[in-house]
Amino acid sequence: MQLDVFTLVPHAFAWLTEQRPVSTVLGGELDLRLFSYRDSTPLRNGQVDDEPYGGGAGMVLRVDVVAAALDAVYGGAPGHRVVALSPQGPQLTQQIVEELASEERLTLLSARFEGFDERIVEHLASEALSIGPYVLSNGDLPAMVLVDAIARRLPGALSEGSGEIESFSAELSGGLEYPHYTRPAEFRGWQVPDVLLSGDHARIEGWRKEHVR
Ligand SMILES: C[S@@+](CC[C@H](N)C(=O)[O-])C[C@H]1O[C@@H](n2cnc3c(N)ncnc32)[C@H](O)[C@@H]1O
Q1: Mean pLDDT across the stretch 69-98?
Q2: Distance between CA atoms of residues 4 and 24, nearest Å
Q3: pTM exceeds 0.70, yes or no
Q4: Is 162 a residue whose pLDDT tops 90?
Q5: Atom 15, ligand 1: which residue's CA is nearest?
Q6: Binding site membership of 86 for ligand 1 (Cβ less than 6 Å)
Q7: Which atom of ligand 1 is nearest to the CA of 61?
Q8: Which atom belonging to ligand 1 lies closest to the Cα atom of 134?
Q9: pLDDT of residue 178
Q10: Fewest CB within 10 A of the end CB: N or C in the chain?
Q11: Are 93 and 129 in contact (CB under 8 A)?
């Protein structure tokens, strides 16, 4: 999958690219490309945003800057999904993550300050997506959330079996995964459920099914 992120801080993604599972699939199933709006801005001095028409606080990411960035990379409107990260979009779910992870190409647009000139969302993006009902300072953490959530759904990202049965998966009918425990079996009087120590796989399976939330 080719996953392109347009941002003002490509270097901020360095940490993410060193972490599993992103690092595992990078260069293989995942081709992650990071582009700065500043590299292609048609404005002087690397300007990318401007004051809002009608007045008010903050700066707004300019439509001509984002159009120039997309033109520079794709030579025109990309023929694939372009997601504008915005608290005003529909909220991300695991179902949307699965859908996005099956795309061959995907573009994420990050903004900051007051956000996007609305024409970016209307005409340059195919959709907006929010990572939750709260406001962050910029779209870079949301973009990283998406990159991580998508990367872990790509083939080979996770060790065998660890990606199939988890919270929100079809295997758990969209529910939350059962509780996990590890050693020690007792700590401060807090016991691991006996059934999990029994070695009886059928009973363990039954217990886990009962404890899907
Ligand atoms: C400070 S926010 C802009 C908030 C906007 N003025 C509003 O009130 O809806 C700046 C940028 O951060 C990103 N952002 C902030 N919160 C987000 C969220 N929950 N989901 C996705 N992106 C978010 C978006 O790219 C947004 O344009």
Answers
A1: 97
A2: 18
A3: yes
A4: no
A5: 136
A6: yes
A7: 27
A8: 19
A9: 96
A10: C
A11: no
